[in-house]
Amino acid sequence: MDDIEYDMPEDRTLLILDDDAPFRTRLGRAMTSRGFVVSAVGTVDEAEEIARQNPPAFAVLDLRLTDGDGLEVVKALHASRPDCRVVMLTGYGNIATAVAAVKAGAVDYLSKPADADDVIKALLASPEDKPQPPENPMSADRVRWEHIQRVFELCDHNVSETARRLNMHRRTLQRILAKRAPR
């Protein structure tokens, strides 16, 4: 994997925020071996401190953390350094959170586990580059589940309001929300 060539920018500072220590360490090592100067932290507070003191050119942030939300860090980074390129990572991939991440200022959104080369492609991609079509597109059941999740998020996680907007019985919606995402 290390034989892929990238057009590296002059400023290669990178913040990695993830509360999964083994993943954070592996990704940090992989990104260092590819030429980045990595600061890897496990909490929102640590990441916000770096954003204030020494904002990096790039950031790879987990969306859901034990002490908060990676979207808070995106805002802190862009307040200190508007040109910071942020990629959000999450194990809970759905369209609603992807939209929220991009609206907050992330340039891309990847589901875990993400490979270091995929992260670099996302970080260094020019805005004109169009992503390749997915190898395994979502099933119709998954698209339905994603839509329900997006409406649920837009309704501030209010089950009754979401059920009303989707013209669905509240208990039916609760059963759908309690299940894992279909493949």
UniProtKB/TrEMBL annotation:
<dbReference type="Pfam" id="PF00072">
    <property type="entry name" value="Response_reg"/>
</dbReference>
<dbReference type="Pfam" id="PF02954">
    <property type="entry name" value="HTH_8"/>
</dbReference>
<keyword id="KW-0805">Transcription regulation</keyword>
<feature type="domain" description="Response regulatory">
    <location>
        <begin position="13"/>
        <end position="127"/>
    </location>
</feature>
<dbReference type="GO" id="GO:0000160">
    <property type="term" value="P:phosphorelay signal transduction system"/>
</dbReference>
<dbReference type="InterPro" id="IPR047772">
    <property type="entry name" value="ActR_PrrA_rreg"/>
</dbReference>
<dbReference type="InterPro" id="IPR050595">
    <property type="entry name" value="Bact_response_regulator"/>
</dbReference>
<keyword id="KW-0902">Two-component regulatory system</keyword>
<dbReference type="GO" id="GO:0043565">
    <property type="term" value="F:sequence-specific DNA binding"/>
</dbReference>
<keyword id="KW-0804">Transcription</keyword>
<dbReference type="InterPro" id="IPR001789">
    <property type="entry name" value="Sig_transdc_resp-reg_receiver"/>
</dbReference>
<dbReference type="InterPro" id="IPR011006">
    <property type="entry name" value="CheY-like_superfamily"/>
</dbReference>
<feature type="modified residue" description="4-aspartylphosphate">
    <location>
        <position position="62"/>
    </location>
</feature>
<protein>
    <submittedName>
        <fullName>Two-component system, response regulator RegA</fullName>
    </submittedName>
</protein>
<keyword id="KW-0597">Phosphoprotein</keyword>
<keyword id="KW-0238">DNA-binding</keyword>
<dbReference type="InterPro" id="IPR002197">
    <property type="entry name" value="HTH_Fis"/>
</dbReference>
